[in-house]
Design brief:
The complex is a heterodimer of chains A (234) and B (276). Chain A is mostly helical. Helix content of chain A is 69%, strand content 0%. In chain A, helix 2 packs across helix 5 and helix 7 crosses helix 8. The two termini of chain A are 26 Å apart. The relative contact order of chain A is 0.15. Chain B folds into two domains: 155 residues, no CATH class; 79 residues, no CATH class. Chain B contains nine helices and two strands; from the N terminus they run H-H-H-H-E-E-H-H-H-H-H. A two-stranded antiparallel sheet of chain B has the order 1-2. Chain B is globular and about 65 Å long. The N terminus of chain B is likely disordered. Classes of the chains: A mainly alpha (234), B mainly alpha (276). Chains A and B meet through helix 2, helix 3, helix 5, helix 6 and helix 8 of A and helix 2, helix 4, helix 5, helix 7 and helix 8 of B.
Chain lengths: 234, 276
């Protein structure tokens, strides 16, 4: 999985952060509390090398968002009924909300595979802890959605983290997810096939890609991400 | 599935002491995943309906899930099922026209596909209920670590996060109370605010608290040396030949239902979705 890559990227990010911050003089303008107070286990502000740190965060995000997905499931059912034959559009409108955890995990952890793993774990939490109306196939959906959302970051070689990449992440997530759903949910051959795809793309860009970056930046401002890759870079 | 040696865990009544609960969770998850995947490309009404009935029967007998729980789950799933049914009935056109509802023609091909998807929704939902009621999440994670080679850090992380689930409701209530008490316009004793703004602020607070908790959990796990090397397991989950035989048996059953449709001529694949 993503374990070996952590060891490769971690020293590099540490070097990047060391130069501008210096040794705990003036606080960096972007981060409210910079990692100036050096921990004994991290001499010279060197990044923590344990895969556990990132994995626990992914699992916790998965549980919190598994709960969010479960809430989305509860909103989704009445919305589907209310819309009647256009119930499929409820899926397209809310579609992005199910994919938000993958770009958020990537925003925070900046490592390949984080998006896919976080999305699969969140789907697992939705299935085993909270209960999902989509059955065990929700794990496959999670994998497909995670791969879709992470594709944009793979295409930019995990080097660009601006608004454009997160918007692109929404588009790739929508394309991959819709390709899967066309068969899995049988959208193929229905009327309004392309219109629904357009709605899903808009939903994924807004509720998945851009929402993840907004949420990530808000979390960054609170200071809880200071020890993660995004906090060290800031 | 019944020809399994007596379980080491509970003989308690209800789903937690049932044959399905004693089934190795990794094998169960894999089997149910494959059993669910088997209908993903099926578009005829008979096959998913037969499998749905089989899943309900398995939940009631092998899973010992209370009939009330199963019935309530079917009712909740019916909302999805009805929506999927009506959407496919009205948005598809294939075969003979059966009826005209306002501007829309209901066709025979659309009816078949719509019924198939409605039954599939019920089937997958029932399998989900089966999994949820008969699986202990901790036992599942331990088994995935033992038998599916899930890396130790991931296992510990998920187990730690699972403990956090139990704390989320209390945390949510504490955040709501704390935010309400700091609102100067609030009269003491009034109910907690339910505006979208208040709920959004509380949700974000919950997320921040969860990330903080993740940080503390990592420190706690690392200080115990978890994630540093191989460890033993306190309550290992057994994997017996019977578990695998049960999984194979269930899959043979699902395969038989699909094959019966093929021999009987009623099985339809994704080609039915795009006629002409």
């Amino acid at each position: 999985m993503a374990e070996p890559t952590d060891k490769q990227t971690a020293p590099r990010t540490a070097q990047q952060t060391e130069r501008p911050t210096g040794h705990g003089t003036a606080p960096h303008p972007a981060a409210p509390s910079p990692d100036a107070p050096v921990r004994p286990d991290r001499p010279g502000g060197r990044a923590r090398r344990s895969g556990l740190h990132a994995t626990v965060l992914m699992a916790v995000l998965a549980v919190v968002f598994g709960f969010v997905f479960w809430v989305a499931d509860q909103v989704y059912a009445p919305l589907m009924l209310a819309l009647g034959p256009f119930g499929g559009f409820a899926d397209a409108v809310l579609g992005g909300a199910w994919i938000v955890v993958a770009p958020l995990a990537l925003f925070i952890l900046r490592r390949p595979g984080a998006g896919v793993l976080a999305e699969v774990l969140a789907a697992g939490a939705e299935l085993v802890v909270f209960g999902s109306p989509f059955g065990p196939m929700v794990l496959v959906s999670g994998l497909v959605q995670g791969v879709g959302a992470e594709l944009a970051f793979t295409l930019t070689r995990y080097r660009r983290w601006g608004w454009g990449t997160f918007a692109l992440s929404g588009v790739t997530a929508a394309v991959v997810t819709y390709a899967y759903q066309s068969f899995a949910f049988g959208y193929l051959g229905q009327d309004l096939y392309l219109l629904r795809f357009a709605v899903l793309v808009v939903s994924c860009v807004l509720l998945s890609g851009l929402a993840a970056r907004v949420l990530g930046l808000a979390l960054l401002r609170t200071g809880v991400l200071d020890n993660y890759a995004v906090g060290r870079l800031a | 599935m019944s020809a399994r040696p007596a379980g080491t865990t509970a003989t308690a009544p209800g789903p937690r002491g049932s044959a399905l609960a004693r089934w190795n969770p990794t094998v169960k998850l894999g089997t149910l995943l494959l059993a669910g995947a088997a209908v993903m490309l099926v578009t005829d009404p008979v096959t998913p309906t037969v499998l749905w009935v089989a899943a309900v029967l398995a939940a009631l007998t092998l899973g010992r899930v209370p009939a009330g729980t199963v019935a309530r789950a079917q009712l909740a799933l019916a909302a999805f099922s009805v929506s999927v049914f009506s959407a496919n009935l009205l948005l598809r056109h294939d075969g003979d026209v059966l009826a005209v509802v306002g501007p829309v023609e209901v066709t025979s091909g659309a009816l078949a596909v719509a019924t198939s998807f409605a039954a599939r929704t019920l089937y997958l939902g029932t399998v989900s209920v089966l999994l949820l009621t008969t699986t202990d999440p901790v036992r599942l994670m331990v088994s995935l670590h033992q038998h599916a080679r899930l890396p130790a850090p991931t296992t510990y992380a998920v187990l730690a996060a699972h403990r956090m689930v139990e704390l989320l409701p209390a945390e949510w209530h504490a955040i709501r109370c704390a935010q309400a008490v700091r609102d100067p316009r609030r009269t003491p004793g009034s109910p907690l605010p339910r505006s979208p703004r208040a709920l959004g602020a509380a949700t974000f607070g919950l997320l921040v608290a969860a990330v903080r908790r993740a940080e503390r959990a990592t420190v706690a796990l690392e200080s115990r040396g978890l994630g540093a090397g191989p460890r033993t397991v306190a309550h290992p989950v057994p994997l017996r030949a019977g578990d695998v035989v049960a999984g194979a048996g269930a899959l043979v059953l699902v395969g038989a239902v699909v094959l019966a449709g093929w021999w009987g001529g009623w099985l339809a694949g994704p080609a039915a979705l795009t006629p002409g």
